[in-house]
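Memo to structure team: turn this sequence into structure tokens by end of day. - J.P.
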Amino acid sequence: MQRQWKLSLQTLVACCCLMTLVGHAAAVTNKTGSKSAAVPKEIASGRPMSATELRRLYSGKTWLWESGGGYMDPSGRFDAVSGVDRKRATVTNGKWSTSNKGRMCFQGMWKTASGKSRSETCFTHFVSGDAIYQRREPGGTWYAFKRSPSEDADEFNKLVEGNRIAAQMRPQQAAQSSSQRKRK
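Reply from structure team:
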């Protein structure tokens, strides 16, 4: 009888541990809309940004990248160019959207001189105090998108007013159109 009790106690402890882990995973899933292995304490105590907050953050701005950027037009249109070499550059004209679960996504048909491919990229945003945390979906690593107080290295500082890539897109689109005509 004592042995059965010991086994039952071990089973009970194991079940409690499992329920605690499942409960934590469910809480993270409910808050972010997806599962995450490591959730920093700042995010656990924060909340997902609303669709309105995300539109205010991105609308009418260009997110500058290492070689190019993406412009989020207030109408929901998304234009992007990546790469400086005309032969390897990619451009897209697509759309961007936000959700009340803290997600901002952009999708489109990415075109190169050699072909095209449809793609969607999403980021989840949490706000904690005046700081914004972000990660790429699915399952990217959380990082401080905008610290409080803000720092020069914050990714947030790469969001600039206006369409800063239009001039960069025109030659890329012209080169791709020319390349596609030659293949026909």
